[in-house]
Amino acid sequence: MSNAAITASPAAAKTGTKNRDLVIFAVLVAVGLVAPAVIYPVFLMKVLCFALFALAFNLLIGYVGLLSFGHAMFFGFAAYVSGYAVKAWGFSPELGILAGTACAAVLGLVTGLLAIRRQGIYFAMVTLALSQMVFFYCVQAKFTGGEDGIQAIPRRALFGLIDIKSDLAFYYLVLAIFCFGFLVIWRTIHSPFGQVLKAIRENEPRAISLGYRVDQYKLLAFVLSATLAGLAGATKALVFQLASLTDVTWQMSGEVVLMTLVGGMGTVFGPIVGAGIIITMQNYLAGFGEWVLVIQGFIFVIVVLAFRKGIVGEIQAWWTRRANKV
Amino acid sequence: MFELLGIPPQALFGQLLLGLINGAFYAMLSLGLAVIFGLLNVINFTHGAQYMMGAFAAWMLLEWVGVPYWGALIIVPVLIGATGILLEKLFLKRLYHLDHLYGLLLTFGLALIIEGLFRKQFGSSGLPYPNPLPGGTRLDFMFLPNYRAWVVVASLVLCFGTWFMIERTKLGSYLRAAVERPDLVQAFGINVPRMITLTYGFGVGLAALAGVLAAPIYNVNPVMGSNLIIIVFAVVVIGGMGSILGAIITGFALGIIEGLTKVFYPEASNTVIFIIMAIVLMVKPAGLFGTPK
Question: Complex ipTM above 0.95?
Answer without folding.
Answer: no
